[in-house]
Task: inverse folding
């Protein structure tokens, strides 16, 4: 582990090559079994709730009914997540050519929302934990093996693919410091620059 400012970073992020391959994984990160949807920061709950109307333009009747019946957010303060259908699909999932996608993000790209999606979704497969401050780590999932294969084949590291959400969360200066540190400990890493 190493520190970048006050953020503790798992050493694996200096090494992991990863680049999403939606055509192979079919958006598996939006449909992981387990009952909890995307983890939400307390301050994101309001944004998610305000996104329902615009996101509903893309959702199935089943998702709309689930939101009407159980709400879009589950849990309590400090432990919120999006609601799931049958302990699997996030209620904001819609399918496009067999690929699970996020209706909130679709509404964002269509200019209907200013909120793109929860940061936990944007950062996936990096997870943020807390040790008295943020701790970020890579969480491997078997459904993401196509992304690992593509990352290795194209020599793309997870931190490069996730430049935008890491910058969204911690700022451009922090991201540059992260990449500079990784470059000093991993000679294969040459990325992080636009």
Result:
């Amino acid at each position: 582990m190493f520190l970048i400012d006050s953020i503790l970073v798992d050493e694996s992020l200096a090494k992991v090559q990863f680049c999403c391959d939606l055509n192979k994984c079919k958006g598996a990160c939006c449909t992981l079994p387990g009952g909890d949807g995307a983890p939400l920061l307390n301050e994101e709950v309001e944004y998610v709730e305000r996104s329902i109307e615009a996101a509903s333009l893309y959702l199935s009747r089943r998702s709309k009914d689930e939101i009407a019946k159980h709400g879009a957010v589950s849990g309590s303060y400090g432990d919120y997540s999006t609601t799931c259908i049958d302990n699997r699909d996030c209620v904001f999932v819609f399918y496009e050519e067999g690929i699970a996608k996020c209706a909130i993000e679709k509404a964002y790209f269509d200019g209907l929302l200013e909120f793109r999606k929860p940061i936990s979704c944007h950062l996936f497969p990096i997870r943020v934990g807390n040790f008295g401050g943020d701790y970020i780590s890579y969480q491997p999932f078997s459904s993401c093996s196509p992304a690992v294969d593509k990352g290795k084949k194209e020599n793309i590291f997870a931190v490069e693919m996730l430049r935008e959400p890491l910058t969204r969360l911690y700022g451009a200066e922090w991201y540059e410091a992260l990449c500079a540190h990784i470059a000093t400990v991993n000679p294969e890493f040459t990325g992080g620059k636009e």
